[in-house]
Amino acid sequence: MSSSDPPLGALVEISAGRGIVRFCGTTSFSPGKWVGIELSEAKGKNDGTINGIAYFSCKPNHGVFIRPSQVKVIAAEPERPPVTRSQVSVARSVIGHQRTPSTGLARAASLRSSGSSRSSSPVKGQSNGIPPSSVTASPRSSRLAPPSSPVKRIPSLALQPRKSFPRQASGESSAPLSPALPPTPRNGYSPSQDPTLVPPVQRTSSPLAIPQQTISPPSPPSPPPIQTQAPLLPPAPIVSTPSLTNGSSHARSISITKPPSQPSSPVVTRTQDEQELQELRAKIRVLEAKRADDARHVRELETRLSEAESFVALRPKLQAKLNQLQTELITTRRELSDAQQLAQLSDTRGIDAQEQLEMAMLDKEVAEERAEIAEAELEDVKERLAQAEVELGVVKEGGVPGEEGESSARTSLAYIQLEKQNERLKEALIRLRDMSQETEQDQRRRIAEMEKDITSIDDLQGQYESTLIKLTNAETQIDDLKVQLDDALGAEEMLVQLTERNLMLGEKIEEMRITIEDLEALKELNDELEENHVETEKSMQEDIDSKDSQIRDHLQKITLLEDACQDLENTIGQFRELVLQLQGELDQLRTQTQTAQHESATAASQTAAMMSLNLKLQSSASKNQAKNIELEIRKLEARESRELLNIVQPYLPQLYVESDSDATSCYLFFQRLSYKTDLINTVVAQAHGLPESLNGSVSETLVGICEMRGRAASLSTLCKRFAAILRRCDVGSFLNIGRIYPEIAPMEKRIDMHIDLLRRDEFREMEFVSDILKMQAQFDHLAETYFGDFEQDLGERELGYALSFDHDLDAFAASIGLTKTSITAILKDDDVILDMGGYDPETELFEPLQKLLDQCKSAKVLSRKLTRRIEDLTQESTALKSHLVPHLKALSNAVPELVNFGISLAQQVIPHLSDARSAKSSFQLATILSYAKQMAMSTVAKDMRPGASHWEAVSDSILQLVQECNKLLPLALEGENVYKISGTAPWVTRIDEIKASTAVNIEAERKATQLQEEIQGLVRSLKTRDQNIQESGVKIELMERRMEAAKRQADTVVDLEIELSKARKQERAYEEAMEQLQADLDTLEQDNAKLKALSTGPERQAPGMQPVESENVPLEGSLETSHLLEQIEALRGTVRFLRTENSYLKGQDLLKELQSLPPIPEPVSRLPTPPLDPSGLSDSEESDSDGPLTPPTIRSLTTETKMLYRDVIKFSSSPRVVDLSSRRVDPSGKGGKGWMPKKATPAHQVLERKMEAERLSRRVKGLLDRASAL
Question: What superkingdom heads the lineage (predicted)?
Fold first, then answer.
C-alpha cells in the first residue's frame, strides 16, 4: 500500500462528511483503486455492496466508494506493536524480492529462495559484528551453483574414507530433511549441552517448517568468531554460526566446528584431518565470496525499495499538481472562451466600423463629386459673369451707334438678372461650403472613433495571443506530466503490449508482403492475359465479321425451312394425337365389349353408352377434321402469300430494297413483338387461372406472375406505340427509324425462345422478366431518341395507362392474398407457438384484409371496363381526347403506392412466419400488426389524419381510386370525348415517289446499273482502304497539332521577317550613305591622281634643263607634292573618322530600336522541324561544319540574327577604299612596279570584299529559309 492510501480503520474526511475506512483496493465495477468508507451520517450511496459483491458491511446509505486522491486522513489507525529492526529488514527484503521484475521470482517459492529471504535479516542486524571472512554463500549463489546445496554436498563428505565420522553424514544430511530432530552428537556432545547451537538448528529447518509471515526474533549477539586457520578449535567459538543464512552453511559450520582433537577411532591420522581441513577452508572461501555477492544483491534490492518508496511518496504530490494544473487549465479555457467572445465582439465591431467607414467613404466620394459639379457650375457662372462684365463695360463705353436705346434696355434687364443669379450662386456656394465642412467634421470624428476601436482591437488581439501561448504551454506541461505518470505506472505493461503488437505487426507485414507478391504475380498474369485477350478479340472480331454475312444468308434459308418443317410437324402431331385418341377409344371399346360379354344384364345400357360415345367421338373427329382442313387452308394461303411475296420481291425497285425495306420490317417487328408478348401474357394468365385464382389461396409464385404480367404489358404497350407512330408518321421519320432494324431484330429471338418454352411447358418466369427489363431499357432509349416528338400514339398511351392500372390492382390483390393465406396457414398449424397479445385475429387482421380485397375487386371491375373501352377505341384508330390523359396518368400513378404496401407487408410477414415455423420464435400477432402499420405509414398513409386506423387509410386510398375511376369511365364512354386519329401511312406516300423515281428509260437504267457496279467496285476498294484511312486520320490529327504549333512559329517568323525588312531598309540607307561616301572618295582619288600627275610632269622635264634649274624645280615640286599628300592624308583621316562615327551612331540607333522592340515570347513546346539541306556553295563558317545539324529554334535564330546583324553592320561600316599605299617603287629607279605579295594587291583586296559580301548574303538567305521553315 502506497503512502497515499489510507489504512483500514483510519478516520478520514471527504466531501460527504467524515467516516472510517473499511476497504481499500481494486473492485469489479470499475478499474483502478477505490477506498470504501463507512460514513457517520446517512449521506452515502450503498451499504458496502455493489452489483451483488460485498466489499464491506455497514448501515444502508452509510457506505461510499471514492478515489484515494480525494480522501483526507484525520486520524490514522491504532498503534501497532513495535517492529524490531530485523523484522523491518526482513519485510524490506521480502518486498524487495517481490518487486524485483526478474525471472528469479518464479523460483522464489523454492526451498533455497525462501531460505535466502529468511536469512537476510540477521545479516543486516549483525553486519557490524561479523567480519567479511565469516560471511557465507548467498541464496543467489545457491541458485546459480546447485552443487553447493546441503543435500548434494554433504553426502560427498560421507564418501571420504574416514572412520572417525561414521554418523556425521547421516546426521547432517537428515538435518534439513527432518526439522524436528536435531543432528546426532558426536562423542557424547549434544546440542543440549551447548545452548548456542540450538538456534542454528532451528534456522536450518525454517524454510520448510516456518511460514513466510512468522519471523523468529533475532538471536542474541554472538561473540566474534576465531580464526579458522588454527588446526584445533575449541567448541566454544562455534556460537558465531547462527549468522549464516541457509541450511547448507549451517551444516558445514557444524562439520567444521567438531573438535578434530577427539578422534573416535585410532585409525584416523592427522594428515587426513589436515587435508579435510584444507578442503573445508577452500569451501569456506567460496562460500564467503558467494555471501559477498548476496550482500551486494541485498543492497541493490534495498536501494530499489527506497526508490519505490520515494516514488510512492511523490505520487500524491504529482496527483495534486495534476489537479492544480487541471484547475488552471479550466480557468485558462474559461479565460480563452471569454477572450474569444471578446475577439468575436471586437471583430463584429471592426466589421461594423469598416462598413461605416466604407459608407463614409462613399458619402465622401458623393460629396466630392457634388463639390466638383458645383465648382464646374461656379466656373461656368464666373465665365458668364466675366462675359456680362465685358458686355457691361462695352455698354458703359457707348456701345454700338444706332442701338443705344435697345442695348440700354437689354443691359439693364440682363444686369438685374445677372445680379440675382450671382446672389443665388453665392448662397449656393455658402451652403455647399457649410455642408462640406460639416461632412468633413463628421468623417473625421468617425475616423477617430474607428482608430480608437482599432487600437482596442489590437490590444485584445495581443491579450488573446498571450492567453493562447499560456494555454499551449499549460497543455504541453499537462501532457508531459500525464506522459510521465503513465510511463511510471504502466511502463512494463506498455513494453509487453508493444512487444506483442510489434510481433503482430511483423506477422501482418509478412502476410501483406506475401499477398503483395501474389498480387504482383497476378497483375503480371493479368497483363499477359489482357494482351492475349486483345489479340484474340481482334482475330475473333475479324472472323465474326466474315461469318456474319454467311450467317445472314443461312438464317434466311433456315427460316424458310423451319416454317415448312413446322407446318409438317404440326400436321404430323395432330395426326398422332388423333391416332392416339382413336387407339385409346378402341382400347376402351374392347374392354367394354369384354365386360359386356361377362355382364349380360347391363349389355343394353353399355351398348347405348358406347353408341353415344361413338357419336361423340365421330362429332369430335369431324370437328377436328374441320379445324385441320381450315388450318391447312390457312397454311396454304400463307404459303401462297409467302411465295407470292418471294416472286414479287425481285420486281420491286432497288430504291425500296435499299431504303424502305428496313423501315417496313421495323414496323412489322414492333407489331409482332407486341402480339407475342400479349400471347405470353394471355397463356400464362390462363395457366394460373388469373384473375379468378386471386379469390382463393395465393402463393408467392402468383405474386411474381402478376408482377411479370405488368412488366410484359408495359413492353407490349410500348411496341404498340412505336407501331402506331410508324403507321402515321411522315416519310422521312419512317425511313430514319428503319435504320435501327438491324440492331433490334435479334431481340425477337428471345421472345420466340420463351414462346417455345411455354409451348413445351418449361416456361421460366425470372428469365423472362430479366429479358423484358433489358428490352424495356433499350426501347426507352429508342423512345427518347426517335419517338419523342410524335402525337400519333395517344390511344396506345392511354391503353398503357389503363393496363398498368389493371395489372397493378392484380399485384396488390395477390400480395394481400399471399399475406392472408400465409397467416391463415400458420394459425392452423399446431406445432407453432401462438402469441396473440390480447388481439383477435379476425377483427384486427383478417376482416381488414378481406375488406381491402373486396374493394380491390370492385376497382378491378371498373378497370376492366375502362381497358376494354380504350382497346375498342384503339382498334378503330380513335382515342380519348388529350384532356383526359392526365386523369388516366394520375390513376395509374396512384396504384404503385398500394402495390408497395402489399409487397412490403408480405416481405416483412413471411420471414416472421418462417421463424415461427422453425421454432426460432413464437408467432406474435402484435408484430404483424406493427409491420402493417409501419408499411402503411411509409407508403399509403403518409398524410393520415390523427386518430385514424392505418387500415382505414389504405381503404380510403382504394375508395379514392374507385371514385376517380367512376368519374373517368362515363367520360370515356361519351362520344364527345373521342376523336379520330387521322393520318396517311408513310408507305402510301412513298409509293408515288418510288413510281416517279422508277419512271426512267431502259438506257438510263443500264447506265445506272453500270454505275452501280462501278460504285460497288469503288465501295469494295474503299472498304479495303478504310483501315489505311483511319490510320491516316490519326496521323492527320497528329500533323494538325504539329501544324498548329508550326502556325504559331510561323507567326513569330513573320514578326521576325518584319523586323528583318526594317533592318534591310536601314541597310539600304546605310548602303546609300556608303555609296555617297564612296563617290566622295572617288572624287578625292581623282583629285589625288591629278595632283600626282602634276607632280610627275616636272620630273619628266628635268633631263632637258640646266643642272641648277633642275635642282630647284624638283625641290619646289617635291614641297608642293608633300603638302598635297599631307592634305590627302588629313582628308582620308577625316573621312575615316566620319565613317566610323556614322557607323557607330547608326549602330547605336539600331541597338536602341532593337531594345525598344517587344520581347520575344518564350519558345512553345513543339515538334522538331526537319533540318535544312546545307548549300554546297556556301563557304561560311556555319556551313563548313561536318557535324549533324540540329533543328533550329527561335532562340537560336534570334542569336544568329544578332550575330549576322553585327557582321553586316561591321561590313557596311568598314571602308571600301583599296589600299594603294602598299605599292612599292622599283629600287632600280626605272619607274616600274616592284614585287609585292598577292594579298597586298588591289585586285585581291577587291576580290576579298566581294567574297565577304557574297558570304553575308548567303547567310542572310539561309537564315530566311530556316525562319520560313519554322
Answer: Eukaryota
**Structure confidence at residue 103 as a pLDDT band (50, 70, 90):** very low
Q: Which of 467, 427, 200, 220 is nearest to 329 (CA)?
A: 467
Single out the residue of 949, 961, 821, 964 nearest to residue 898, CA to CA.
961
- Work out the number of other CB atoms within 10 angstroms of the CB of residue 272: 17
Give residue 105's pLDDT.
33
What distances in angstroms separate CA 1189 from CA 356, 1056, 1104, one per listed residue? 71, 22, 73
pLDDT of residue 753: 92
What's the Cα-to-Cα distance from 1089 to each of 506, 1121, 1244, rounded to whole Å?
107, 12, 21
Q: Would you say residue 177 has pLDDT above 50?
A: no
Contact 706, 631 (CB under 8 A): no
DSSP 228-294: TT-SS--SGGGGGGGG--SHHHHHHHHHHHS-TTS-S-TT--HHHHHHHHHHHHHHHHHHHHHHHHH
At 1161 the three-state DSSP class reads: coil
- Partners of residue 1141 on adjacent β-strands: none
Burial of 403 (0-12, 13-18, 19+ CB in 10 A): exposed
User: pTM for the full model?
Assistant: 0.37
Least confident segment among 63-67, 202-206, 893-897: 202-206
- The helix-helix angle for 150-158 and 247-257 (nearest 10°) equals 30
Phi, psi at 504, each rounded to 5°: -60, -45
Paired with 672 in beta bridges are none
Q: Cell for 547?
A: 461469318
Q: How many CA atoms lie within 13 A of 214 on its CB side?
A: 7
**Residues 406 and 395 sit within 8 Å (Cβ to Cβ):** no
Tell me if residue 462 falls in helix, strand or coil: helix
Grid cell, residue 776, equals 424495356
For residue 374, count other CB atoms closer than 10 A to its CB: 18
Peptide bond into 82 cis (omega under 30): no
1029 vs 225: which has the higher pLDDT: 1029
Where is 454: in which H helix or E strand?
helix 404-598
State the burial class of residue 302 (Cβ atoms within 10 Å of its Cβ: 0-12, 13-18, 19+): middle
Q: In the Cβ-directed half-sphere of 54, how many Cα atoms lie within 13 Å?
A: 6
Are 799 and 874 within 8 A, CB to CB? Answer: yes
